[in-house]
Structure formats: structure tokens, C-alpha cells
Request: fold
Amino acid sequence: MLDAITGPADLRALRPDQLPGLAAEIRRFLVEAVSARGGHLGPNLGVVELTIALHRAFDSPTDRIVWDTGHQAYVHKLLTGRRAEFASLRTMGGLSGYPSRAESEHDVIENSHASVALGWALGLAEARRAGRGEGPAGRVVAVVGDGSLTGGVALEALNLAGHRKPNLVLVLNDNGRSYAPTVGGLAGHLGPLRLHPAYERLKHGIEGTLGRSPVLGSEMVEAAKRVKEGAKALVAPRTVFEDLGWQYAGPIDGHDFAALDRAMANAKRVDGPVLLHVITQKGRGYRPAEEHEEDNLHSLGAFDPATGRALPISGNGVGFTSVFADALLEQARDHPELVAISAAMIGPTGLKRLAAAMPERVYDVGIAEQCGVTMAAGMAMGGLRPVVAIYSTFLQRAYDQLLMDVCLHRVPVVLVLDRSGVTGEDGPSHHGVFDVSYLRTLPGLVIASPRDGDELRRAVATAIAHTEGPFAIRFPKGVTSAPAAAPAEPLAIGEWEVRAEGPQDGTGVLLVGLGGLQGACERALELLAAEGVEVTLVDPRFAKPLDARLPDLAGAHRLVVTVEDNVLAGGFGSAVAEALADARQLVPVLRLGVPDHFLPHGKRDKVLAELGLDGVGIAERVRKALQDLGA
Ligand SMILES: Cc1ncc(C[n+]2csc(CCOP(=O)(O)OP(=O)(O)O)c2C)c(N)n1
Reply:
């Protein structure tokens, strides 16, 4: 059946009794496709029926379906004519793992940072209300997970939509989980609605504004009778959504086509914002995902479809995240005041080990990076030593909190930015290529950028020992060398390491490579040395402050080359150029890094090579620069 579906119209031509078969086929397809190259599995298995129902009920692209985060849009892709492209899922030039406007007119937004879909949908709905585009007839639907609803920006839109009251459908895809179980008072509010549904179904289903129950089954009919008989146990409070000005319908069984169809048909008839509370099961229909306790196989690399177990990764080494996890645990043993904060990503950021050993010292704040950072400021002011572990790309969201709460108050918060630099398969919105630029602007912040496991462990020790102000550590995705067993020796803040010393007589090249790109610099050094170009290789260790000896060392070379996988705008190379200009050191500077455009998805190594940020590319650019200088 799946082969015959080239778009939503084909889907609408199916008979209702054909839909369960289609859903089963889609689930088999998803497991096969994701097992080959990795990707998001659990979230997509959970929304198979929901996505089919959405595309039958709404007329995309005239009606706009906006996926929050977008990691759960694989089924949407399959149903909008992209089945064949799944063979290239997440590979360079292939199918994106998120919605992509370049791929399809059915993809509205491609921002894979959580919690923004409702704001987008609100804006689109207001534009229609103002008579633009399709006008008020077209519907706007936002599909938002219960995890993503914990983000402040989602709550802001929820609040505003209840006040503005445009025609807007919010499908709350409630599976009770982010990666791990969703935290917070709102999750606590949804739980009882999910478990004791009868009253809400009745109030808004039979007697309320929606006219008919979206989920009228025999159980409900019974419940209806009991309510009418005045059975007090069934009387539930209003939902918070209604208090905010929304109409609420639910809960709706997100795996029951008939219930979904009725709910959506009703929602289309309602004026103003309506929330469909749809209950789904993450990982549905694939036992390894259903039974996977940590995250229902939320996202994973290539795996064996028979067992759900990850395929062994070739190559030696240990993940940077793992080194951080051990280093943090080591520090926590010596520092009872140390606590760690994660924004709904305890597992992926490596806090799981600390949480297993000392659960009371790890805080999951939900997808609430801003709140997490400000809370850390308060904790530090109150005498704790908070370590905030947030992927580089997601910390972008908390810029103002870093500036005003952490840095203005000079509180000793430690920021740990995993997935710094080019990250790979998740694409434009996930590459952590902006952090040096945005962190550098923050007064008083130290920024360490360790190149390997040993240096990372030392950076963690340095950060915890640094009580005078905030401290950030950024490190890339990927594997590194295992750190030494000896106690981690703290680093001197701002002090670089000269790793290879070339001539200091104005003839050589000074190569300064930040963090994870030291390896590529080593390779470039070898290539250049073989051609007789002499190079001094420096690991700056810190993007801020820079070693005070920089202008003098630069002046002893013919050319300074900076290498980073951060954007060139305001990045590490800019910092070096600024320092040299301020010292009136006029040596030419060649800055290598990420140019002024968004990067595609693809393996980290491949993306870096395309940018010329591998050994060969660096050597080539140095050679060319020397030619231009007439050397
Ligand atoms: C701002 C931001 N922080 C963190 C993430 C990482 N992240 C991706 S999906 C996800 C969980 C989303 O949970 P939910 O919205 O309930 O969707 P589900 O996967 O359960 O379907 C998180 C935390 C993100 N995408 N954006």
C-alpha cells in the first residue's frame, strides 16, 4: 500500500478498514530504514496513526501542518511522496532527518529546536486572519509533544493564542515522555487527564462546544450515564488549557483511527484555538522500542532490526561525552556542593552516570534551557556549584540568561557545551557552530576548548576549581583518546600549549587550531613539512582569554593561520585578529572556519572536508596564502 501513496490525496482515497494495514507497513518500513543509518525511531513509531489521520483530515499544503522539533516527521515524509529517498536518510545530499522546505511543499518549518511550532502556527493563523495566503478558510495545525510543551516559548504561544483566539488546532502528542519521562507541573496536569478521562471527554465531547465526543466508545457511554447520574468520582477540574482560553478535546486514543477522525473533523468546525489531547505510545509496535526504558529508542545509530541493538562502531577511542561523564563524577565525589542541570537530556549529555550515583544532585528542568541557566545562577549564588550540560546548539536559546543572570552577576556557573562545532547528520539547526561567537561576547566568561579526552578532563577540573566567575567548556561530537588514569591536573587559565615549534625568525607559519580541529592541524603540519613549509603548531586551549604571548609569537612568523569549526563571524579567528590588531601586530592572518551560511546534514568528517577543514584542505589554503604573500 505504501508504494501506491504519492501524496495525501492517495491516502484519502483509502477505505478506513485499509488504514491499520498501512500503519503496520509504515512501522516495518521505519524500523528497516532507521536501522540502516540511524535516526529518530521511537517518536515516529508513535505517530503513525496520528500522521495518517492528520493528512486525511487536513488538506496540506493548503492547510498547514507544523511539526514541533520535526524529529517525528518521518511518517509525514513517507505520506508526502518521499518514500524512495529514505535510502539516503541523513546522508550528505540525501533526505533530511527533519522537515525541509527544499524537499517538499508540505514542510512548513525546519527548526528542529523544540517548542516553537505553536508560535509559528499562531503567526501563520494570524496572517490568514488578516486575509493573506489562503485566508481564514485554511487551517493551521501545530503538532507538539508533551515534552516540547515544557519549553517556555511554547507556553508563551499557548497563553497568547488563548487571548488572540485565531483558528488554530494544537495537536498535543502526549506520550508522557521527552527522551525520559516529561517533568514538571504541566506533565503532572496531563497525567490525570490521561488516566481519568471520562469527565473531560464528556464535558467537551457530548455536551461541550465540539458537539460530539471525539472518542465515543462503549466505555464512554457508560461513563456518560454515570456522570448524568451524578457520580462524583468522575467530576474532574477544568483543564488549564480552558482557563487559558482554549477549547479542549480529549483525551483521544492516538492509535484509534475512528477516534482520531472524529476528533479532527470536529476540530475543523470549531472557531478559535482548539487543543486535541492525543495519547500515543512512543516506540509503538516495535518491541525493542516499546520496552526500552531509557528513551524508547528515541534516536539511535545503525542497529540490528531483529533486536534493536546498536551495531558496533568501528574505530578506537572513547566518546567525549563519556569522558565528561566520568570527569564530572570524579569532581562530584570531591565537591559535595556540585550539582548538575540538564534540559531534558540527562542521557545524551552524559549526566546519567552522576544521576545513577547521586540522583539528588542532578536536575532535569525540561526543555527549558533558559530556566535551567537562570536557575543555575540562583544555585551558584546560593552556594551550590552548578554544572549546566546543554548541547551547544540549544544553549543559543539562553543567551540573555547567560549575559544578564550568569555573567552580570559573575556567579560561578559551569557551562558544558557538548556537540560543539560541526555535529553531522542532524543538519543546519543542530551544528554547534555559533558558540565561540556568542560566548565570546559575554564579559568575564572563560571558554575552554579541549582537543582530547585528557584535556577535557583537565578542563573539567579547572572549571570546578574556578570560583571567581563563570566557565564554559565546549567539545565536539565524536571519539577521542581515553584520558590518563592519574589525577586530572588543572590548567592555567588562558595558557596555550605549543605542540610543535617551528623557526621563530619570520619565515614559518603559526598554526593555531581550536579544540577538535587540532587533529586536522597535525595532519596539515605533516603535509606542509613534507613540502618544506615549517610550522609552529599551537593549541590555544582557551577561546577566551587568549594567551598574552600571542602577539609576540605571531610576530615571529610570516603568516598566522587560525582553524576552527565555528562561524568565521566573531569566532576564534576573529578573536586572534582582534588581539593582534590591538597589539599593532601586523602579521597577515588567514582565518579558516565556517563561512556565512547554514551547513547541510552529513557526517561530521565529510562536512568538515567540504569546508576545507581537514588536513588536506588546511594545507592547501596555507600553501595558497603563502603563494599570495609571494613566499
Ligand atoms: C531547544 C531544544 N532542546 C532540546 C532538544 C532535544 N530534543 C529533541 S526531541 C526532544 C524530546 C521531545 O519530546 P516531545 O516533544 O514530547 O516529543 P517525543 O519525542 O516524545 O515525541 C528533545 C529534548 C531540542 N530539539 N530543542
Observations:
- Residues 142 and 387 are 34 Å apart (CA to CA).
- The longest strand covers residues 559-567.
- Residues 43, 69, 71-72, 112-114, 145-148, 173, 175, 177-179, 282, 298, 343-345, 367, 369, 394, 397 surround thiamine diphosphate (CB under 6 Å).
- Residues 497-628 form a domain with the Rossmann fold fold (CATH 3.40.50.920).
